Amino acid sequence: MGGPRGKLISTSDRENAVKLINEARIAGARLKSACKILGISDRTYQRWTKDDYIKEDKRPITKRPSPKNKLTEEEEAKVIETANSPKYADLPPSQIVPKLADEGEYIASESTFYRILKKEKMNAYRNRSKEPTKREPPTHIATGPNQIWTWDITWLNAAIKGHYFKLYLIVDIFSRFIVGWEVWESEKAEYAEYLVKKAVLSQDIQGRPLVLHSDNGSPMKAATFLATLERLGVQSSFSRPRVSNDNPYSESLFKTMKYRPMYPYKGFADLNEARKWVNDFVNWYNLNHLHSGINFITPYQRHYGLGEDIIKKRIKVYEEAKAKNPIRWVKDIRDWSLPEVVMLNRVNEKELNIIFEEHSS
């Protein structure tokens, strides 16, 4: 170390320190004690006085070899150029990297993208919402699509202040696929009945086991609506009273929708305009949105079993990139595996094993 706690010390300061220590030793002080007062070790003093001259600290001018796996200037420039391109300018690296892999291209890892953007002070959060925080997983487990759905109602601003349209929306928690939606001007149980019937018919799952989870709103717990679920063979499930995060899949989806750049914050002019905008959003969300909860494939791909082939292609792209430049890969390639189960509420390992046994039997 060049000085106290590894700080750089000028030659004149070293000379003064050695002079003071020598004077103290002449007066009878021990070397170790004198050095301790100045905040250096006796070994540092010996190094400074070796060959009877004060050595200049050469660490600032010492040229050290760059890591063998360091990106070249051209490669770093490619990362910056890609991140700033119109196609990816509004996407974080977590979205950019899988999109590149789907196109058969590997530029750098996700962590490298983040590191370079941070170095260039370009690593701003690319969204108008606050940075996401981890939500508590809300008692049912899905091992495939059309096993557990969650639904909720959110309000959409109208152009007239104080007036709102009501969006009814059902999402499959395994695939995050929106299986049904409707927009009306009010909240009624009969609207909810119509939506559930429509979603069940569209997925052709009449008579199959299905759990429909919701909060405790009046349309969700209406007697006629619950009777409809019973006739369809759908099991109802509700959030715990006064617990706001027991329906995170629907809440997360609503947040994604309302923070879309093109969301009309000034409100919808009429019901038809609201329905058209929601229809466009649902098509984008199901068909184009790379969802982080399913390892950045679209809900449509996950829902209809297309994800495995996409993941295999990504793995091939990464393995070829690793074979081409193995020194840049310290560990294995990125884990592109898809989640096997999705939980609505947290369960312990014992309960999870019981559920797996029930599914396999």
Describe, in plain words, how this protein is organized in 3D:
The protein has 14 helices and 7 strands. Among the domains are: 4-61; 141-294, Ribonuclease H-like superfamily/Ribonuclease H (Nucleotidyltransferase, domain 5), CATH 3.30.420. The protein has helices at residues 11-26, 31-38, 42-49, 73-84, 93-102, 110-119, 189-203, 218-221, 223-232, 248-258, 271-287, 299-303, 307-324, 349-360; strands at residues 141-142, 148-157, 164-172, 178-184, 210-214, 234-238, 342-343. The protein is elongated. A 5-stranded mixed beta sheet has the order 4-3-2-5-6, sandwiched between helices. Strands 1-7 form a two-stranded antiparallel sheet. It starts with 10 loop residues before the first helix and ends with a helix. By secondary structure, it is an alpha/beta fold. Strand 2 and strand 3 form a beta hairpin.
Shape: elongated
Number of strands: 7
In what range is the share of β-strand residues? 5-15%
> Please, what is the average pLDDT?
84
CATH domain class of the domain at 141-294: Alpha Beta
Measured between the Cα atoms of the first and last residue, the distance is: 66 Å
Question: CATH homologous superfamily of the domain at 141-294?
Answer: Ribonuclease H-like superfamily/Ribonuclease H
Q: Major beta sheet, specifics?
A: 5 strands, mixed
The helix content is 40-55%
- Work out the radius of gyration: 31 Å
Which secondary-structure class do the elements indicate? alpha/beta
**Known CATH architecture of the domain at 141-294:** 2-Layer Sandwich
Order of helices and strands: HHHHHHEEEEHEHHEHHHHEH
Q: What is the count of helical runs? A: 14
- What name is given to the CATH topology of the domain at 141-294? Nucleotidyltransferase, domain 5
- Low confidence ranges: 134-138
Q: Please list the strands of the largest sheet in the order they lie side by side.
A: 4-3-2-5-6
